[in-house]
Design brief:
By secondary structure, this protein is α+β, with helices and mostly antiparallel strands. 44% of the residues lie in helices and 16% in strands. It is built from 10 helices and 8 strands.
Amino acid sequence: MSAIRNVAGQKFGSLTAIRRLPLSDKNRHSRWLFMCDCGQELSSLLTNVSTGKTVSCGCYGRAISTSHGMCRTLEYSTWASIKERCQNPNSKDYHRYGGAGISLYQEWADSFSSFYAYVGPKPSLGHSIDRINVYGNYEPGNVRWATLSQQARNKRKSRYVIFNGNRVPLKQATDDLGIPYTTATSRMRRGETPEQAITPGQRTPQTKRVFEARVDLKITQERICRDLRTLRETLAFGEVRS
């Protein structure tokens, strides 16, 4: 049988643990009496408090709802989730965020309204909050609403390349160049740098010929379009003269 966890005196959000209460949950979860910062006592399951599901006696939610009326919005849920993973050591994701040194800008941590004023409304259900520099903090200049595809490119494990003078995800560069991402990664496995992998001059003779053929085709298409424009203009001029 596992030892009973003693959290007396520990603080969770606005709640301070006072004493353990008799078990009343069918799953034998530990129930504790807590004192809220506002002075009210609260009885709650320890698991709800330690995971951040319960952060106060209810006064915090009432204060938030009174100040901006957005406590039930997706934007507020996003803000609360960021605070949870950056500031609550008991959060399941804390080790990847707060525990890894990633913090939430203090003014935003203190005020949802300040956070919302910066990020604005969520553009769609397909967007979520994203850090532009995945190693940086949640702070001005480093957060945005991004789509799933944008976030997939912007991960800590993403490969990067210098493209057009900027450091961008390899996937973005290959998409812009029309090169299959798998082709670039295959070249890198053969020892090429990311920059070489997306450079036509660094290709094998066979793939270089394919690329050159595509360039020739594009030039031919442009020449045909130019000739057609000239022909149309000539015909139109002839009709005017007649």
